[in-house]
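User: Can you recover a sequence for this backbone? Please restate the input before giving your answer.

Assistant: Of course. Working from this structure:
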């Protein structure tokens, strides 16, 4: 399939992943038609708009570290790429991931893997943790890993607008419609069907439909273990100076980071309560009362006083096989590509995914980062690539 510069690419889903693919297709010289099918241009319930918009290099899989480094470079270079007024408010500040004595060996291995890939991770012992973060209760903490560079947070909405507008300025058409399925002919994608029963001819179809990406290919009988799982974010105020507060991940699973003059925080629900959440965007306040607040107040005494300002819930596009992205061509339908399943890290990995998928379409191979480990083959083979650093 290599060296294609013309034809029609239909991308289903026009939030950060779909828009990044469209953007990089043009960036790399694709001169054909690019249609992005997006059912809701307000992006009201998209994961992108509802995300915590943070980036870390602390992952268990080397490919994820590389994708994050690419993402951090992309965020740092936003003005060079999109012009002097472009701004995504990138705050480059580390994730501080706490560990108990039981975590030490795994965390050391993780930090050396991340460092080998180019991340900059410090290992902090209890005294160093207390010295640098005196507001933290650390008596039960044996170590913390702390990203010195390439980690932080940003404004995902602004990032989406920049990438999407840049794509539109280069003749990428956004079509407001719901894509209902793929049309196959002789084992290849021939088009995409819309809800209106209109059909669009396509030389490639990319499934970037986020938490709904499994539904889009269901009719083809293609198993895609991606499910919408609800995650609630609470915006709070507390008597704690956020200036030096990193993105903190507690051993309980609770996380918190500064946002404006307050903080945002969250925690995953217990596995037994983490059902598929189609259409459910109600914040889960019980989670705050029963799990999040007690955990945060234990770790940071100042958070005993927290006041909730507002809360929202969005969906992770959870890869239930291994918590990793599913990226690249289907193993038997070469012009059907996936870009989904990121399980809570899809905004930070959108630039690398955009570039990688564009390389696949244009050149039939990966050139910048080898995304083969995230390929669809492992789904069919049932051989997971487990990501261990998950929240
Ligand atoms: C609470 C929360 C916190 C998060 N925190 C982070 C974080 O800190 N860092 C990070 O990197 N990631 C985070 N994520 C994950 C991240 O938001 C997602 O991985 C990422 O936004 C996925 O982008 P996407 O474009 O694939 O999906 P989405 O943003 O969900 O976009 C998919 C789009 O496809 C459209 N669509 C779906 N089906 C169809 C169809 N059939 N036809 C037409 N259009 C369709 C939808 O309308 C939607 O706009 C978080 C997610 C949540 C919910």
């Amino acid at each position: 399939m290599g060296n294609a510069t013309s034809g029609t690419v239909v991308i289903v889903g026009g939030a950060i992943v779909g828009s990044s693919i469209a953007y990089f297709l043009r960036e790399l010289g694709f001169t054909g038609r690019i249609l992005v099918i997006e059912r809701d241009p307000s992006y009201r319930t998209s994961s992108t708009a509802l995300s915590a918009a943070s980036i870390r290099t602390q992952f268990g899989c080397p490919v994820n570290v590389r994708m994050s480094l690419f993402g951090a470079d992309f965020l740092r270079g936003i003005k060079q790429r999109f012009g002097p007024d472009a701004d995504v408010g990138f705050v480059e500040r580390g994730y501080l991931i706490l560990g108990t004595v039981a975590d030490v060996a795994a965390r050391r291995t993780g930090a050396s893997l991340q460092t080998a890939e180019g991340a900059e991770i410090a290992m902090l012992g209890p005294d160093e943790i207390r010295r640098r973060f005196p507001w933290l209760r650390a008596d039960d903490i044996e170590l913390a890993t702390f990203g010195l560079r390439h980690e932080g947070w940003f404004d995902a909405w602004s990032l989406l607008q920049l990438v999407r507008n840049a794509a539109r300025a280069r003749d990428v058409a956004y079509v407001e419609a719901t894509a209902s399925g793929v049309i196959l002919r002789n084992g290849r994608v021939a088009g995409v069907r819309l809800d209106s029963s209109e059909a669009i001819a396509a030389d490639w179809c990319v499934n970037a439909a986020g938490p709904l990406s499994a539904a889009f290919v269901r009719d083809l009988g293609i198993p895609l273990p991606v499910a919408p799982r609800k995650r609630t974010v609470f915006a709070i105020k507390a008597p704690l100076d956020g200036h030096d507060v990193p993105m903190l991940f507690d051993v309980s699973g609770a996380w918190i980071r500064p946002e404006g003059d307050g903080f945002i925080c969250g925690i995953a629900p217990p596995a037994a309560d983490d059902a598929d959440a189609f259409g459910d965007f109600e914040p889960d306040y019980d989670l705050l009362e029963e799990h999040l607040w007690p955990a945060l107040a234990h770790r940071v005494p100042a958070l005993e006083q927290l006041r909730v300002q507002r809360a929202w819930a969005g969906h992770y596009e959870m890869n239930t096989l291994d918590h990793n992205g599913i990226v690249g061509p289907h193993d038997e339908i070469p012009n059907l590509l996936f870009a989904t399943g990121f399980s809570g890290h899809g905004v930070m990995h959108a630039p690398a995914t955009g570039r990688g998928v564009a390389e696949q379409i244009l050149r039939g191979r990966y050139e910048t980062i080898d995304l083969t480990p995230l390929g669809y083959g492992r789904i069919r083979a049932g051989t997971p690539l487990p990501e261990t650093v998950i929240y």
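That completes the design. The longest strand covers residues 307-319.
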